[in-house]
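To whoever is on call:

I kicked off a structure prediction for a single chain this morning and the downstream step that reads the tokens threw a length-mismatch warning. I double-checked the sequence; it's 171 residues and nothing unusual in it as far as I can see. Pasting both halves so you can look.
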Amino acid sequence: MAEQGTTATFNPDQLKAEAAVRKAAKAGNAEAQFRLGVMYGNGDGVALDHAAAVDWFEKAAAQGHENALITLAWMFANGTGVDVDEDRARELYVTAAEAGSTKAQYVVATMYRFAQYGMEKDIAQAVDWYLKAANQGMPTAQFALGKMLMEGKGVMQDDAAALQWLSLAHV
């Protein structure tokens, strides 16, 4: 992987791909903006540049692009290419979750369950968000929900429901 600020050489196909993606991104295409952000974030076909990656992810996220919202949230949560900002991470994850992202719903549930990123611990909210993701077929959420119901920590123990969710998660 190229270091930020170093000169890298790219083959003609990479340059053509980057030019096409950049053109679409500048025209406002959210998927292209996200892809260009990924290219900058990975140094793939362009020089590694986290600031440029964040800029393109922000543009795509402003249009509600699910993966841009989640990627930005992860960057702010972990301080990757940006300063750690748990408030911003929380805001982005919640925005994506409210828009229907199963990945974000799972993360928001976990934030409530374990009081992460400035969230107050709220098991009822955690269960609600796990349920949203689980009902959309996300195995990790199904497993988390099943485990909570099996253990009865913060929720009424329900072995039958636990078995149902754990069985779905296993498939």
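Update from on-call: the warning came from a stale cache, not from the record. Cleared it. Sanity check on the structure: The chain has a mean pLDDT of 92.
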